[in-house]
Write a structure and sequence with these properties.
The protein has helices at 9-29, 59-82, 84-88, 103-107, 116-130; strands spanning 36-40, 46-50. By secondary structure, the protein is mainly α. It has a two-stranded antiparallel ribbon with strand order 1-2. A hairpin with a 5-residue loop joins strand 1 (36-40) and strand 2 (46-50). It is elongated. The N and C termini lie close together (11 Å).
């Protein structure tokens, strides 16, 4: 999702939510509840018996439905990856043009009134803890 414009993020999140919601609705529509039923006998005694209702559709049909949803998701992914229309909606096709901020850059306070002394004292304490070893910096693309 990071290669497409930010305007598509809402649609992506709605689709992600629906991928869990739709199968759960189908499972509820299957209709196996097992609610207890009160049964009264001829002699006047009553007892509660679990009702074993038949499912509206079999488990194989449910899994075929899930398989069809997965195939639709795969087709959508392939279309987004290979269609020229979808390629024109991408921000950039190369990783080098993305933000090259590192993880340590994200943690730094960049507000104009942030004191530099805190940063220096933190760096000094880190170098004392590490001995004269320099920490390894990792590039994390956001």
């Amino acid at each position: 999702m990071g290669i497409f414009r930010q305007v598509y993020l809402n649609s992506y999140l709605i689709g992600e939510g629906m991928s869990g919601f739709v199968p759960s609705i189908a499972a509820l529509a299957q209709g196996v509840s097992g609610n207890p039923v009160c049964v009264t006998l001829e002699n006047g005694t009553s007892f509660i018996q679990g009702a074993a209702d038949q499912a509206r559709f079999s488990t194989s049909e449910f899994f075929i439905f899930l398989l069809s949803m997965m195939i639709l998701s795969l087709l959508a992914f392939l279309f987004l990856q290979h269609l020229p229309t979808a390629r024109s909606e991408r921000i950039s096709s190369s990783m080098s043009s993305r933000s090259s901020a590192t993880f340590s850059d994200a943690l730094q306070d960049t507000s104009p009134d942030a004191p530099d002394a805190d940063t220096i004292s933190q760096e000094d304490s880190m170098s004392q803890q590490l001995g004269n070893k320099q920490p390894v910096q990792y590039n994390i693309y956001l």
